[in-house]
From TrEMBL:
<feature type="transmembrane region" description="Helical">
    <location>
        <begin position="247"/>
        <end position="266"/>
    </location>
</feature>
<dbReference type="Pfam" id="PF13520">
    <property type="entry name" value="AA_permease_2"/>
</dbReference>
<feature type="transmembrane region" description="Helical">
    <location>
        <begin position="390"/>
        <end position="411"/>
    </location>
</feature>
<feature type="transmembrane region" description="Helical">
    <location>
        <begin position="335"/>
        <end position="354"/>
    </location>
</feature>
<protein>
    <recommendedName>
        <fullName>Amino acid permease</fullName>
    </recommendedName>
</protein>
<keyword id="KW-0812">Transmembrane</keyword>
<dbReference type="InterPro" id="IPR004840">
    <property type="entry name" value="Amino_acid_permease_CS"/>
</dbReference>
<feature type="transmembrane region" description="Helical">
    <location>
        <begin position="78"/>
        <end position="100"/>
    </location>
</feature>
<feature type="transmembrane region" description="Helical">
    <location>
        <begin position="417"/>
        <end position="435"/>
    </location>
</feature>
<feature type="transmembrane region" description="Helical">
    <location>
        <begin position="121"/>
        <end position="145"/>
    </location>
</feature>
<keyword id="KW-0472">Membrane</keyword>
<feature type="transmembrane region" description="Helical">
    <location>
        <begin position="278"/>
        <end position="307"/>
    </location>
</feature>
<feature type="transmembrane region" description="Helical">
    <location>
        <begin position="44"/>
        <end position="66"/>
    </location>
</feature>
<keyword id="KW-1133">Transmembrane helix</keyword>
<feature type="transmembrane region" description="Helical">
    <location>
        <begin position="455"/>
        <end position="475"/>
    </location>
</feature>
<feature type="transmembrane region" description="Helical">
    <location>
        <begin position="165"/>
        <end position="186"/>
    </location>
</feature>
<dbReference type="InterPro" id="IPR002293">
    <property type="entry name" value="AA/rel_permease1"/>
</dbReference>
Length: 478
């Protein structure tokens, strides 16, 4: 990679490059050794929106809510979320700094190469890339499989339908196909879907919290929510807090928070499609973590306070404790509306997970990191999208879910793989940044502030124009 960057820098200085030097993003990409192939039409809001949609607390929290109730209970869910969110923000800030210096679709694996000593660069990049790829595939699997499970749960409302593993995997396959089609033929719509997804997640999550709290016949006590420790991790009624230590259960129990607050590397993977990538990428990472952390904590509190019968919620006939909480608070008709909001958010989450996954695979194939890289390193010229890696992402995600036909713990395994794989891929470049700090080239503060000011000016101008148009409409109406 370093030799490639040198070659490109040489072409720029000799004037043989076809890129306009005035285009900062393309010149910066060329400096790193790549030419602009993907369509660059995303802004800061859309870059943030991809990570925000993939973190999707309204997907992550319901996905592992049952796991959280049984593995530590409310106390671990509430306080564990705050601890994990704090450390996730620290990780995001560290990643943002590196992203500002190396804004490319490769993300963590490219950073690992740039931050390593030359003799170790290839190995560090390869290891980071495969952990990131595995984590990305597992995330897509878990998100879309959760979507299928929730669709199956809604199908049981006011019907005699009973989902089976076969029907659920069939629904999962259908969800993946639709998400793949959106990323293939609707790539020009992703910008608009992204905007819809941001509002859907923000407004939908808030509406869900308010609805269940307002409609709940009764509420759990603050002691239950903030102090209750539950351990149902063992067999024969003997949990691991007794077999080993309560600390062990706490560490395992925070998987819900750790899994939910991941996937924010998507902002880095989308930088080759984002204007002002050196600023938008890191800001997108940090904003996505911060807003999701606050929204997710209030969602957990809302769900826990709204539990009517803990045992019935855990053993819900719907198979999903969150679905049971919604049923117990707003009734079946209201539950259908709220579940549609949840499923819609999950679908957006899975769609943009495929988007991020495909960009990472495309970049990794571009650098020869995966088998068949010559086939997968191809951008559809008409759509300016890596269509082949879109379907590679969908296929691998489906294959990872197949064990669910015969194993009840397959979903927990997928979420664990996603969490471990992604956070290892985040940790490696951060560790190398600290280890080889003398070789890291920061983006100058003046450049960062200047570009940030440009974004702020645009947002202010748009707000003023919107206010002026609204005033004009009001005046004409008067």
């Amino acid at each position: 990679m370093s030799s490639r960057s040198s070659d490109v820098e040489g072409r720029i200085t000799t004037g043989t490059t076809v890129l306009s030097v005035g285009n900062t993003d393309e010149v910066e990409l060329a400096r790193m050794g790549y030419k602009q192939e993907l369509k660059r039409d995303l802004g800061l809001l859309q870059n943030f929106g991809v990570s925000f949609s993939i973190i999707s607390v309204i997907t992550g929290v319901p996905s592992l809510f049952l796991f959280g109730l049984n593995t530590g209970g409310p106390a671990v869910m509430v306080w564990g979320w705050i601890v994990v969110a704090t450390f996730s923000m620290l990780v995001g800030l560290a990643m943002g700094e590196v992203c500002s210096a190396h804004p490319t679709s490769g993300g963590p694996y490219f950073w690992a190469a740039m931050l390593s000593k030359p003799q170790h660069a290839a190995f560090a990049s390869w290891v980071t890339g495969w952990f990131n790829l595995l984590g990305q595939v597992a995330v897509t699997t878990s998100i879309s499989f959760t979507t299928a499970n929730f669709i199956s749960s809604v199908a049981t409302f006011q019907t005699d339908y009973t989902p089976t593993p076969a029907t659920t995997i069939g629904t999962f396959a259908a969800v993946l196909v639709v998400q793949g089609l959106v990323n293939t033929f609707g790539v020009h719509l992703l910008r608009y879907l992204n905007n819809i997804s941001i509002w859907w997640h923000a407004v939908g999550t808030t509406a869900l919290i308010i609805a269940i709290l307002a409609a709940a016949p009764s509420h759990q006590s603050a002691k239950f929510v903030f102090q209750t420790f539950i351990d149902k991790t063992g067999v024969d009624g003997v949990g691991w807090s007794q077999r080993a230590s309560p600390a062990y259960v706490v560490v395992i129990g925070i998987l819900m928070a750790q899994y939910s607050l991941t996937g924010f590397d998507a902002s880095a993977h989308m930088t080759e499609e984002t204007h002002n990538a050196a600023v938008a990428g890191p800001v997108g990472i940090v904003m996505a973590i911060g807003i999701s952390a606050v929204l997710g904590w209030f969602l957990i509190l809302g769900l826990l306070f709204s539990i009517q019968d803990l045992d019935h919620t855990v053993a819900s006939p719907t198979g999903q404790p969150v679905a049971q909480i919604i049923l117990d608070t707003v009734g079946e008709k209201g539950a259908i509306v709220l579940m549609v909001i949840v499923i819609g958010a999950m679908f957006f989450c899975g769609t943009f997970s495929v988007t991020s996954n495909s960009r990472m695979m495309y970049a990794f194939a571009r650098d020869g990191g995966i088998p068949g890289h010559k086939f997968f390193h191809k951008v559809d010229m008409k759509r300016k999208s890596p269509v082949r890696t879109v379907w590679l992402a969908c296929t691998l995600s489906f294959l990872l879910a197949l064990p669910s036909l015969g194993s009840a713990v397959a979903f927990s395994a997928a979420t664990s793989i996603a969490t471990i794989g992604l956070y290892i891929s985040y940790a490696i470049p951060i560790f190398l940044r600290v280890l080889n700090r003398e070789s890291f080239k920061r983006v100058s503060l003046s450049y960062f502030l200047k570009r940030t000011q440009l974004i702020a000016n645009r947002l202010i101008m748009r707000s003023l124009l919107l206010a002026l148009s609204s005033l004009t409409v009001w005046a004409s109406g008067s």
